[in-house]
Amino acid sequence: RQRQKTLLISEVGSQISQNTRSFLRSVKLRVAQLLQCFPSSFALSGQGPATAATYRHSELRQKFAPQPSPMELNSSRYYRLLKLGADTTERFERARPITAREVQASKSLVLFVDCRSEAERAVSVIPNALPAAQVADAALAEPQLVVAYCCIGALSAQWCEAQADGVWAYKTRFLAGGLASWAHHGGALVEPPPPGPSPGALGGAAAGPGAAWQPTRRVHCWARELAPFFPVASSGYDVVLAGAAPPDASVLARPSDLRHARLRHLAWEVRLRYWPSVFCIEAADLQTQLALGHGRSYLIVDCRTSEERQVSTIAARGAMVISADDFRMRAPEYIGAYSTVVTFCTIGGRSGIFCKKLVEELVEVGGYSQEGQADALRRKVVNMLGGIAAWLHTKGGLVDAQGLPTSLLHPWCQAFLDMFPLEGLELVFDECRPVPQDALSLIACKQACGDKQQDAFPQRLLQMCSMLPPEVINDSLTRAMESCAGYED
Fold it and tell me: CB–CB of 278/343 below 8 Å?
């Protein structure tokens, strides 16, 4: 209670909820003992019945949310890294991966091959690693295992693919997840010594006379977009972002394409589950209309939270972008003033539900109940399929709260981080933030559709036809035919 910050324990006990009483009985705790578990929030004074509890904070905190430990944060980052590594290396079918844990547990004689640039190697390397350009067949003969590595695995997988027809291909592997994975497993890194001949290193690795491999915790990352895949700063590693040109642009382009395909899969699943009666518009189609100078005909409604909108929103050339709250206050007026109202959020879930409820309310009490008016309203208020993630995948831009171009974006929650393109985008979010309640159903939807084949879309769509108006069936099937490959009839 904000107005009364100090209460006797007996008063606190009379005001707690029934659930809290049941909890205290089950764990055999008194109220005072429970409050002692939160010394940063409650101060106890006095003894016995005169014991008083004082709330320390100036404002009431409605909910206690435990902060994830660095180990939990790293586990989440490592999981995302493995998915990214699989996406970046899937085209190299003959390259075989090996995990950092397997390498560290191996008792074989290992030769590490560094496939990165000279500027990246100048920051740190795995001990006794050879630059890929200096690896000859003679150097591959002695070790029992040859492990190539780079930042996240793409260049090393490409190197292993090139060795696939060689005599030593059977013992050649690439490090899954690259140096990011190596750091997640606490792998040793050293500063490379000055160049010079040294017969002591495996395969003739370069090292000056008397030079020593100096341990370091610095690791190079060639792209700012990849830094969130490395361990958190409290793990002891210092991620260096400057000093190296990016490798082949296709390193990030291919996983972005795969993410776009998964996003379309998820966007369709979300539509069929939560807003099947709502008309939709593709992000690419909207961008085409804006590029043709039709922006004044469109009103774009951002259904995300104010925290997300403060970071950035879509750059809609010539079209006005407003919040969902502002739109609701004058919905009939806006609908009458614009030919099309487009709602969007992160992936299309929240905005689709908003659009569905809005149309239902307007049809019921807003004067759109006459014949033909409800249908016209549904065609006028549409949702952007795939949300702002689809907008970015189709090369749409962002602007900040002042209307200036930006590359920053709030992704809403961690579950949808892998729905956005990797190139030219910097995600701004708090990894310690709990998952929003309204995200749970969409996360479950994402998990449920993760293993389904895209070819199943038409079948699931047809199963819902009895629930949909004919005009929505026509719109949905037309879009399904454009987005799904390999089905007939």
Answer: no
